[in-house]
Amino acid sequence: MDFKSACTVRHAHKRYGRSGPWVLKDLKMTIPQNQIYGLLGSSGCGKTTLLKCLVGALDLDYGSIDLIVKSKKQIGFMPQETSLFEEFTIAESFYFHAALYRLSKAQAKSKIKELTEVLDLPPDHRVCSTLSGGQVRRVSIAMTLLHSPSLVILDEPTSGLDPVLANLFWRYLNQLSVQGQSIIITTHYIEEARQANVVGLMRQGVLLAEDAPEKLIAHYKVDNLEDVFLCLCNEQETALPVEVEAEKKITFTSPFKDDANNYSMFVPHTKAILYKNCKWIIHNWFAFIMLSYCLSLACIIESNECLKYFPPQRVGVVNNGENGTCVNYDPSGFNCSEGQRVDFSCQLLDAWRKEKPQIPLSIYNNINEAMKDGKARKLITILEIPYNFTSGILERFDRGTNADSELIETASMDIHIDSTDYMAVYRIEQDLRDVFYSVFKDHLKSCGYLPQVAKPPLRIKQDAFFGKNIVYQQYDYSLHIAMACMCSITYLVPLFLLTISLCLEKMSGAYTRVLVGGVRIVEIFAGYLFMIVIFNFTNTAAMGFDSVCYLWQTLWQFLAHLHNATDLGILWDLVWFLCRGSRERFSRECRDWYCGVISHVYVYRLLLANRSRLFSSGGTFQLHRVPNDVSIESTHGHHFERRWFL
Ligand SMILES: Nc1ncnc2c1ncn2[C@@H]1O[C@H](COP(=O)(O)OP(=O)(O)OP(=O)(O)O)[C@@H](O)[C@H]1O
Predict the structure, then answer these.
(1) Which one of 48, 156, 186 would you pick to mutate in the ligand 1 pocket, going by the greatest count of ligand atoms within 8 A of its CB?
(2) Nearest atom in ligand 1 to 51's CA
(3) Max Cα separation, the chain?
(4) pTM passes above 0.80
């Protein structure tokens, strides 16, 4: 035959696995340029394997392939499988393939119009998964031909096509070949292949003959190609079995190894993959929104008290004292030297209102009502003042060291503190001590005693005891695990769903086409990575709202209690916290201005201390949730006070 070759295959050997049977056995093939080559053969003879080797989807074990094209971009390959993104509409599929081959809008538009007419495509808003088998095949052919490739390779394009349409399609292929495209087509319909310029007849991995159909028919003196094939099969049966000879084992080199498009197409390929991923997400929005963003939202709602109401900052009081609600008692009018009778409960409440205006009091008639509100988390503490509280304390003063335990019991107030909030317990105890001290001090002063007598015999010195090793005992981590798990799932969902999409696309063969189009794994990876980053970023932003809310309160509380900020360490950790505010999304107790700051330090200290149990809890940790049995074993230079840890 006298023609220029579009593809030449020499001594092609291919098998799957190291010890599998040879699928291609010393196969030789020459595909003429600008002509249609019909590759015929029984099922399983190796046609698809050969085509995949031609387009670079598989490598030969031995042999050589010479192609007229040097870039995958110039090849159009239609695999046997559907090879379409099933959720896409036809228009989206066209857009994706046009982007993949960097076609201009005008080029894409005119080619789409041409292909729609020739292949009688359904309306372009139709989703691929809803098309019939024949329609899918036609859309698949259209995608293959969209970028007008120089070498067109079609694996059984006409199976399932209406005969009239198949005829039109063959005519269109003829037209393309005249326009300069070389076409290889496999088909099971042997007679159909008479329309090809050249046919190759293949059996058991060997090309038995290749020539123009009419020449083959004439040579074997039969009426049709089927009979030619029969003759060739008989010849092969009588011939000696083909052995793979050592001298025919030519080392295979990919015809695309110098593909110049490898790097220049990075951006368009990645953009096309991104487009495809975005569309996939849009088509599967329900799964993404439900699994990803709804979980984020649940985390925020569940973990953020700021969104619900301002955290309770009230102290409930049940005053069973002699003056009850204190309406008939003027605390400021009390003067010991004039022999007036003091009411410590009313003095205490008055002092509280003056000294702790940020924590208002709620007066209750009985303990049950107060406890009800306490359990509803409207109160942080309930003060239950007994009837003879004042007389009991006065008697204690009188009796001095002679006071018995019964009297001490009588003169004590019950304080119910919400112990789920460790920092609140600490603060309320401190506040109560301050207020009691101020009341007794004033009383003693008014009665002519030394006020310092009321001061507890303690001199607090602030030293730095900071241990490296923090020991946990008997702590229930489940509280933290739930939230941490939800958050982790939120971040894993996009990864999980996009992986599913990748698997589905691989199974449908869509990726074969994409890879044959010259897309590299690194470009697919970049497209996926970008999507995952976007998802996690938006998730973090959503959760960040929670952090901003918390941050605002933290700052507010920080400024309100600035007098406590005796150490620069707080400022340092506040800055740290600002930088890493998102870590605090699990915070339940926004009101503790320092819990966020300290918990932060705490987390890092624990991470540094390598506590595997904390790691297993998976989330951040709050100081007020820390059990009382935390101990710091050894000292280590640090800017925080020990009392903050205990
Ligand atoms: N991935 C694979 N692993 C192992 N064997 C394979 C694989 N793919 C194909 N084969 C085997 O290689 C042989 C040739 O398969 P191939 O798909 O190339 O045939 P074919 O001529 O295209 O058949 P059909 O016309 O039915 O599509 C078959 O025996 C097949 O079972």
Answers:
(1) 48
(2) 18
(3) 141
(4) no
Is residue 246 pLDDT above 80, yes or no? no
CB of 462 closer than 8 Å to CB of 370: no
β-pair partners for 185: 38, 154
Please tell me the residue having the least CA distance from ligand 1 atom 25: 43
Do 216 and 193 contact (CB within 8 A), yes or no?
Answer: no
Token digits for 545? 């709202």
Cα separations in angstroms, 219 against 15, 201, 224, 287, 415: 33, 14, 11, 62, 110
| 418 DSSP 8-state letter | -
Of the candidates 542, 448, 454, which has an alpha carbon nearest to the alpha carbon of residue 491? 542
Closest protein CA for atom 22 of ligand 1: 48
In whole angstroms, give the CA distance from residue 365 to residue 319: 8
How far, in Å, CA of 356 to CA of 364, rounded? 19
Q: Cβ of 364: how many Cβ atoms within 10 Å?
A: 21
- Ligand 1 atom closest to residue 46's alpha carbon, by position in its atom list: 18
522 CA from centroid of ligand 1 (Å): 28
Per 3-state DSSP, the chain is made up of helix, strand and coil in percentages (nearest 5) of: 55, 15, 35
What DSSP line would sit under 191-246, residue for residue?
GGGGGSSEEEEEETTEEEEEE-HHHHHHHHT-SSHHHHHHHHHHHHHHSPPP---G
pLDDT in tens, 366-414: 999 999 988 777 888 889 988 888 888 888 888 877 878 888 888 888 8
Q: What count of residues does the chain have?
A: 646
364: helix, coil or strand?
strand
* Helices (H), ranges, 101-132: 105-119
Contact 227, 191 (CB under 8 A): no
Q: Whose CA is nearest to atom 29 of ligand 1?
A: 44
Q: Is the CB of residue 318 less than 8 Å from the CB of residue 324?
A: no
